[in-house]
Amino acid sequence: EVQLVESGGGLVQAGESLRLSCAASGFTFDDYVIGWFRQAPGKEPEGVSCIGSSDGSTHYADSVKGRFTISSDNAKNAVYLQMNSLKPEDTAVYYCAAVLNSSWYFCRDGRYDGMDYWGKGTQVTVSS
How sure is the predictor about 64, in pLDDT bands with cuts at 50, 70 and 90? Predict the structure, then answer.
């Protein structure tokens, strides 16, 4: 079955770094754009970053631009999110999600309702 499994979350202090991993299986990896979304308590899911495995294109939300870096390893069907200079407002459950390449704009626009597959999330907590 389709699986997206996140790992790497944890509790860190402001200014520190975390690296999240998303392991994908059950679908053709390079046919999909993989994105990271996050959801803070009481808020709608927010698009964070996207990567097209087929062409390496990336997108970042303004709130994380310059601090976060998304990357992929197609041989491992994995996507990573390097998060540097973390802020308390980055605190959220971070989800890995996938959408067909042809609908990549859903990820670009942070349209969580358009994503096809979701992981269960990993908690990131940033203390001040």
Answer: very high
